[in-house]
Design a protein that fits this description.
CATH class of the largest domain: Mainly Alpha
Number of strands: 4
Structural class: alpha+beta
Strand content: 5-15%
Helix content: 40-55%
Radius of gyration: 17 Å
Order of helices and strands: EHEHEEHHHHHH
Number of helices: 8
Low-confidence stretches: none
Distance between the termini: 26 Å
CATH architecture of the largest domain: Up-down Bundle
Strand order of the largest sheet: 2-1-3-4
Largest sheet: 4 strands, mixed
Length: 202
C-alpha cells in the first residue's frame, strides 16, 4: 500500500491528497509533526534529505516534492487522467503548478500566519503586501482561465489540484473577489464541489 508522510495543514501535502483522492487510491497516512521538527530527524532525512513533507513511499520507491509526487502518481496510476496528452498542455500545467508554489502559496502562508495573531501583533505592512500579491495572482488566474472550465481546459488537472488547498481558505484570509474576478469565483466554486477537495475539510 502507498504511504504518505503528511502534515495535515501543509498545502503541499494537501495537494497530493487531492490527487490521491481523484485517483481513488488507498494509502496509509503517516503523521509528521512539523511543530516538533520531526521532519529533521535522521529517520525522516533518510527519506527526504531536504527535511520536508510530503514524502510518498510506493513499495520500494521513495518520492519527495509534491509536484514530483503528483507526476509520479499520474504516470503510475494514469486513470483518471490529470495531465493533458499533448506536450504543450503538459507544459502549461507544469508552469501553473510552479506559479502556484512560488507566487500563490507564499502570500497565503504569510496571511494565515498574520490572521492567527492578535490585531496588535500583526504586521500591517506584511498583510498589505501579501494581499496585493494575492490580488495580482487572482488576476493572473483570471487571464489564464479565460472562458475555460478549469485552468488548462475543460478537465481538472494537476494545476487545479495545486491551487485547491489555498484557494479554499481565501475567505478565512479576508480576501473578497472583485466583480472583475467572476470567472475565478466560478472556477473556485467548481473546485470546491469536487469530492477530492471537500475531503480536505477546508
Amino acid at each position: 500500500m502507498l504511504k504518505l508522510y503528511d502534515y495535515p495543514d501543509c498545502p503541499f501535502c494537501q495537494k497530493v491528497r487531492v490527487v490521491l483522492a481523484e485517483k481513488d487510491l488507498e494509502y496509509e497516512k503517516i503523521f509528521v509533526d512539523l511543530r516538533k521538527q520531526e521532519q529533521k530527524l535522521p529517520d525522516f532525512l533518510r527519506l527526504n534529505p531536504y527535511g520536508k513533507v510530503p514524502v510518498l513511499v510506493d513499495e520500494d520507491e521513495v518520492i519527495y516534492d509534491s509536484t514530483i509526487i503528483d507526476e509520479y502518481l499520474e504516470e503510475e496510476y494514469p486513470l483518471p487522467r490529470l495531465m493533458p496528452e499533448d506536450s504543450q498542455g503538459r507544459g502549461r500545467v507544469r508552469m501553473l503548478e510552479d506559479y502556484c508554489d512560488n507566487s500563490f502559496i507564499p502570500p497565503t502562508t504569510m496571511l494565515l500566519a498574520q490572521v492567527r495573531k492578535t490585531e496588535g501583533e500583526r504586521d500591517p505592512q506584511r498583510v498589505d503586501q501579501a494581499r496585493e500579491e494575492l490580488r495580482r495572482a487572482l488576476y493572473f488566474l483570471r487571464d489564464r482561465l479565460g472562458a475555460q472550465t478549469f485552468l488548462c481546459g475543460s478537465e481538472f488537472t494537476l494545476a487545479d489540484a495545486a491551487f485547491a488547498p489555498r484557494i479554499m481558505v481565501l475567505g478565512r484570509l479576508g480576501i473578497e473577489l472583485e466583480p472583475a474576478l467572476a470567472s475565478v469565483q466560478t472556477w473556485i466554486d467548481r473546485i470546491r464541489a469536487r469530492p477530492s477537495v471537500r475531503s480536505l475539510g477546508l
